[in-house]
Amino acid sequence: MAIGTRAQEVSKLALALEEQDKAIFELKGNTSNTNTRIDQLAELISGLTLQQNRLMQQLQIGESNSSRHNPTGTDCGYYSAATRIGKLEFPRFGGDGVKDWLYRCEQFFEMDRTADELKLKLVVIHLEGKALQWHQAYMRAVAAESRVVKWEDYVAAVVARFGDTGYEDPMADLKNLRQSGSLKEYMDEFDALANKVDIKETDALSHFLGGLKTEIQLPVRMFHPTTLAQAYSLAKLQELTYGALHKPGFPAPKLHHLFPSSSSVHPSTGLNTHSKVNTTAQPRLTTATLSKTTGNGEVMEEEVDKDQEEEEVQEMSAPQISLNALLGTRSFQTMRVVGTVGRKLLHILVDSGSTHNFLNADMGRKLGCSTERVPAVK
Which residues form the Retrotransposon gag domain (predicted)? Predict the structure, then answer.
């Protein structure tokens, strides 16, 4: 029994060993296949790397050749439709501002790398109004002559049709430009003229400063600006400063020309005035007779024509006095001066809010002045 059992166990172990050997053999076969595939992949990767290097060399050679033919370094043979359809928008043209429009077109062509044969087609799509009408007539005339339209020829034709007359002199206009209104208006006119001429920034700066108003020009020159940007900033600051310093202050008091309707004699000069006033519904002073009594008793009279407007001639109204004059206080409308009557001093308070000057009662008695009752001041 024991011998038979051991023989069975040995046979089982022998079978297990055989199966392990088979598995090991299969693993070795799979490993060899895997190594073979890895080698193939390595060869494929090396081949792709070589092809990539060759393509890069060809691209570099092509770019160098194109840069030789095109100094700007742009590949005009390349056309990017995605860029044109994207955020870039081609400028439209209806006949006004042809130079500005052509400048924007050239900038678009440079950014988009548009080929020369496609430039005219893009332009036609964005023409409108009288510009489109002219284009149609121009193309029919060219087709009748069987000519090929180049972009340079088309630009010359557009400028000849919609450009300036040719008799304008923007340089002379720039030299003669002077500021007559606000600084913003002057800067707009200056930029429009400076865009039409080719001058250095130092010359443009000299013309700009020379055209400013005197109250702005002199302070700006004091800082010696070296660029137009500095001159613009200083001029704006000076305009604000000048406007703040010259704001109107207190309004000037109105002056009323009052002439008495009856004759009156000035006690100190001996002048006697007689006014001839019309008795119409709206009285108006026409003539005035000025007479002076001399020391010998002779009277010298002189008539003076007065052509005053009606609003300047006002009838004598009830006397008015301001609160400053009553209280004796000082303000920006009052002025205190010293006068003399004979050998006596007087302190005179001049107030623009009063219609009459009032004399102190005690001072009047000292001077020997006669008094006359008048209606009470309200």
Answer: 121-213
Q: Where are the domains of the chain?
A: 1-63, 81-162, 170-245, 256-316, 318-378
pLDDT in tens, 151-205: 888 988 988 888 876 666 788 888 999 999 999 999 999 998 888 888 899 999 9
The CA distance from 81 to 282, in Å, is 86
The pLDDT of residue 15: 84
| Average pLDDT estimate for 142-146 | 85
CB within 8 Å of 181: residues ≥ 6 apart? none
Distance CA 82, CA 112 (A): 9
pTM: 0.39
- The candidate with the shortest Cα–Cα distance to 354, out of 250, 274, 258, 251, is 258
Positive or negative torsion for Cα 210, 215, 220, 224:
positive
Torsion of CA 102, 105, 111, 114, to 10 degrees: -120
Could you report the per-residue pLDDT of 228-275, keeping only the tens digit for each?
999 999 999 999 998 888 876 656 555 544 444 444 444 444 444 444
Backbone angles phi, psi at 16, to 5 degrees: -65, -40
Cα–Cα dist 1/48, whole Å: 71
d(CA 304, CA 288) in angstroms, rounded, equals 6
Phi/psi of residue 259, nearest 5 degrees: -125, 130
